[in-house]
Amino acid sequence: MYGKKLLMKGNDALAEAAIAAGCLYYFGYPITPQNEIPAYMSRRMPQVGGVFLQSESELAAINMVFGAAAAGVRAMTSSSSPGISLKQEGISYLAGAELPAVIVNIARGGPGLGNISPSQADYFQSTRGGGHGDYNMLVFAPASVQETVDLTMLSFELADKYRNPVLILSDGLLGQMLEPVVINPPKAKPPDKPWALSGAKSRPANCIKSLYLGEGVLEKHNLRLQQKYKSMQQEVCCEELYVKDAQLVIVAFGTAARIAKSAVRSARNKGLPVGLIRPISLWPFPSQPILKMADQGASFLTIELNSGQMIEDVKLAVNGKSKVHFFGRAGGEIPTPEEILDQIEQYCPKPVASR
Fold first, then answer.
1. Which pLDDT tens digit goes with each residue over 145-157?
2. Can you say whether the dihedral through the CA atoms of 149, 153, 158, 164 is positive or negative?
3. Is the pLDDT of residue 353 over 70?
4. Which residues of 149-182 are buried (b: 16+ CB within 10 A; e: fewer)?
5. pLDDT digits over 198-253, tens only?
6. Cα torsion at 236, 134, 26, 77 (round to 10°)?
7. Chain-centre distance of CA 322, in angstroms?
8. Architecture in CATH for domain 239-347
9. CA-CA distance, 126 to 215, in Å (whole number)?
């Protein structure tokens, strides 16, 4: 299977990529549109000597991940929007205890139970920690099945590197679509984890916790975590298209970016000076490329599958230097390239007629 081009559904490819990355412990609970992930894991985990466990609830699943991660193994859980909400307390515990794990959100429309259509309305929840306390996770947003594979494998590496949970924010469209992918095993094995709870017959006992009751102890712990989060800023990544001479820059991620890219190319064919910045890491957010374009006088248009969330990070990056416009569809609705092209034509300077 590895090293060969295969036609795979996004959710199946994500699950196989996790296995290739060395994940041997998966805990989850059913919810559409991510059910292919636990279904795939239930078949594959026994074949690779791993453990699949369908828990009694989302709360149980995330706490099982906590236990497995504390034992030093690579562990993962997945869910969809309301299920991720139920896992937030456990995710905060993982961050507080500095435990590496990968959490996957195949997002659906909300709020509440909403619907099962693709959505990006979980942006705030994902990039602002989501649970209680001051913490951050690396958050990656794939825009294709191949990128889903690549970012899944990277997420396990970075979770171990920083001893921190990592979130993959996908959606129902990317999870269900079929695309060709190549899955390669990682070049390096998972690192040794001397901090893990793996038995202490010949060494001092380890202690993993997120409870700090002594005076000033929790603040000291938080300050150290903030330094770690600053070091995680180096993992920022984005894609740039046609930005060199752009006077209007589209900012979009995931599924919205796929559609926006088509509209940007159509606009370019009409001579409109428009470009695209696609955040791949949502936290850390690629503020510098956006600020650079603002300094060059470009304005911005964010395209989102929500009522306006990422636009706040774009405005923070721009820092009042240029205008930031918004176009979005909510409740699981998806814009067409033609709708986005209409927005581009509304906000983009018209090409100068040649003489």
1. 999 999 999 999 9
2. positive
3. no
4. bbbbbbbbbbbbebbbbbbbbbbbbbbbbebebe
5. 888 888 899 999 999 999 999 999 999 999 999 999 999 999 999 999 999 999 99
6. -80
7. 27
8. 3-Layer(aba) Sandwich (3.40)
9. 31
Other C-beta atoms lying within 10 Å of the C-beta of residue 3: 8
Q: What is the pLDDT of residues 188-199, one digit of tens each?
A: 889 999 999 988
Supply the pTM of this predicted model. Answer: 0.96
What's the token pair of residue 25? 């412990």
Per-position b or e across 305-320, b if 16+ CB within 10 A of its CB: bbeebbbebbbebbee
Task: Dig out the tokens for 268 from the structure.
Answer: 């370019």
Domain with CATH 3.40.50.920 in the chain: 239-347
Length of the chain: 355
Please name which of 312, 352, 284, 5 lies closest in space to residue 145, comparing C-alpha atoms.
Answer: 5
Q: What is the CATH number of domain 5-234?
A: 3.40.50.970
pLDDT score at 354 = 43
- Which tokens sit at 326? 């918004």
What lies within 8 Å, CB to CB, of 308 at 6+ separation is 302, 326, 328
